Amino acid sequence: MIDAAFLDRLRSIVGPAGHIDAPGDMEPYVAEWRGRYRGTTPLVLRPATTRELSEVVKACWEAGVPIVPQGGNTSLVGGSIPSQDGSEVLVSLSRLNRVREIDPLNYTVTVEAGCVLQAIQEAAAEVDRLFPLSLGAEGTCQIGGNISSNAGGTMTLRYGNMRDLVLGLEVVMPDGQVWDGMRRLRKNNTGYDLKHLFIGAEGTLGIVTAAVLKLFPRPKQVETGFLAVRDPDAAIELLASLRSASGDSLSAFELMPRIAIDFALKHVAGTVDPLEESHPWYVLLEFATGSGGEAFRDTIEATLGEAMEAGLVMDAVLASSESQAKQLWFIREAIVEAQKYAGGSIKHDISIPVSCVGTFIREATEAVERTIPGARPVPFGHVGDGNIHFNVTQPEGADTESYLAQWDKLNTVVHDIVLGMDGSISAEHGIGTFKRDELKRVKSPVELELMRKVKAALDPKGLMNPGKVL
């Protein structure tokens, strides 16, 4: 238990508006939104400035009290949930939510960690710029959490993941010191690039409080298409052709099986099948360019025509309006929601070389069906960057609890195939608590030792988000 007097000290640092201690009010902070993890804390702190947070962290350092940092609490791996013993204080970054500066000429925006991703997208759009990170939780997730988990999303194919979008960081270190690395530079070869230690570290090395982010020209023309493809191999061959033909203006390339479309049509109102006939596999794609007009669309249509003649594409529709484009994207979004109504789902967030996508889906599907007869694989996702959400829905009529009890067994089966292709067991969701033990199996002893040395050097007391990642 944490000493009551010490908790009063923390309350005094952040003031009446900066803390929550009523159990009911703390509930949204201590429970994962999917219900998989739930913890306990005596106090939720919501500092409004970097200085307040620095004082909180320094006090915890001196008292030996662990801290769990939290953004929008949209984690899928339990990375922002405290332990169940009540020994940790939780620090929410939600009040650190200012856009400090936007520089259209430098193509940068400087934001605090509690800024909601969608608000940053909108701030960029107001000055005719694009912040390209886009994912399903963008209306609630916070940029500090995106940075700490190295978030990906639908446009990683063209713009990269979070690591590729950060120029500078401000970080409160485990002892309360503030590292000011808020550089707005594209080139800076003055020693170690320390920001990369904290991007993807899930709050285990320090707490990100602000960031300088890259902006890009806002596209003037966007073309969205929904295609039926022969199979995943055809999709990857098509991907290569479209990137070449469009001058690499392809910003999204999402693969979906028919079972996922059927789930969405059955369980999510407003989902519409855009093609007349049913096909085994589909691709949702998006092109974005600064200019191009009819000639740009003509090029896309011609390339798709060639792909149809080659037997790669079976049918296709290009959106003729913004509303139709949104309707096509709604199908992709509905797939995520629909799976929870179809029964228990054992999930895998994996990445492999793009050229291996077809082989992986075939081998993993066969292995899953051997392991759990009747299980229904639903592989979908951002295959343009090699990221597949290889989710497996329970057999029809099966007992959900008994099925989900086989999670670890199925993870091993799928992850073994991933590792055989030199892939990753976590493409964009992170490690958190959920994949911590599996990390021991997939990382080499040298890698794990290096990670532990970094952790020990920056957080020798082990107070930053303990029990996560390592």
From TrEMBL:
InterPro entries named in the record: FAD-bd_oxidored_4_C, FAD-bd_PCMH, FAD-bd_PCMH-like_sf, FAD-bd_PCMH_sub1, FAD-bd_PCMH_sub2, FAD-linked_Oxase-like_C, FAD-oxidored/transferase_4, Oxid_FAD_bind_N
Protein's UniProt keywords contain Flavoprotein: yes
Keywords: FAD, Flavoprotein
Superkingdom to which the source organism belongs: Bacteria
Organism: Skermanella cutis
Protein's recorded name: FAD-binding oxidoreductase
Family: Belongs to the FAD-binding oxidoreductase/transferase type 4 family.
Gene3D superfamilies found in the cross-reference section: 3.30.465.10, 3.30.70.2190, 3.30.70.2740, Uridine Diphospho-n-acetylenolpyruvylglucosamine Reductase, domain 2, Vanillyl-alcohol Oxidase, Chain A, domain 4
Span of domain FAD-binding PCMH-type: 37-218
Flavoprotein keyword on record: yes
